[in-house]
Amino acid sequence: MEVLRRSSVFAAEVMEVFDRSPTDKELVSQAKALCRDYINSRLVRAGVSWSKPEYNVPVPGGKLAEVSTILLRLGDELEYIRPNVYRNIARQLNISLHSETVVTDAFLAVAAQIFTAGITWGKVVSLYAVAAGLAVDCVRHAQPAMVHTIVDCLGEFVRKTLVTWLKRRGGWADITKCVVNTDPSLCSHWLVAAVCSFGHFLKAIFFVLLPER
Questions:
Q1: Which of 147, 148, 130, 150 is closest to 139 using CA atoms?
Q2: Which of 53, 89, 115, 210 is deepest in the core (most CB within 10 A)?
């Protein structure tokens, strides 16, 4: 109950940020809240048993909930276009999931490669899809504690690499502009165009990155 209470307080604090310009710290907190929600969605979809109560608490209502919904929707489209890229990530990277250092280094290396040629919302969605895919691998291999590591890594990457870009766009709510039609049966063509070539690029990274581990 205490975990749930703290999560509810945190959710209320995160929601307040959308009424003003967010600080760097707030953008990172939102990034991690969105990551937890994305990972939980993918764990549920994969049918993986997951008992951490703080991961069952949804992101707060209002704008952040809308951001999370759209992030998940765009992630669905991205993973549908290139399903093999975002599954069995640990095997593709040829890494052990028993070492926090290895998992951290691998995730940050892939994240850095994704954004080598610049930042777009398509690439941000891809980052979350990679994080969730790796988290599913960790839970399946009896390493649930690594999920926290992945969330923290994503938050740190956002702090170092994406915060300035996010602030120029007014925060995470800018992603809602990527979806014009709210009909979930319709594809967001901007994303399709962005990842048709990018999927091949990311898959190539998976097969050459950290081959010795």
A1: 147
A2: 89
Q: CA dihedral in degrees (178, 151, 7, 64; nearest 10)?
A: -10
Indicate the pLDDT class of residue 137, thresholds 50, 70 and 90.
Answer: very high
Residue 16: what pLDDT?
53
Residue 19 has what pLDDT? 55
Q: Average pLDDT of the chain?
A: 79
Query: For 113-119, which contacts have Cβ atoms below 8 Å and span 24 or more sequence positions?
Result: 113/202, 113/205, 113/209, 114/202, 114/205, 115/161, 115/162, 119/161, 119/162, 119/165
For the cut 70, the answer to whether the pLDDT of residue 132 exceeds it is yes
> Could you give the CA distance from residue 72 to residue 129 in angstroms, rounded to a whole number?
9
How would you label 151-170 residue by residue, b for 16+ Cβ within 10 Å and e otherwise?
A: bebbbbbbeebbbebbeeee
Name residue, tokens 């069995």. Answer: 88
CB atoms within 10 A of CB 199: 18
Neighbours of 62 (CB within 10 A): 14
Among the ranges given (64-68, 92-96, 208-212), the one the predictor scored with the smallest mean pLDDT:
208-212
pLDDT tens-digit series, residues 26-43: 999 999 999 999 999 999
Structure-derived torsion over alpha carbons of residues 151, 121, 163, 92, reported in degrees to the nearest 10: 40
* Contact criterion met (CB below 8 Å) for 103 and 146: yes
How far is Cα 81 from Cα 185, in angstroms, rounded to an integer?
A: 15
65, two tokens: 């909930």
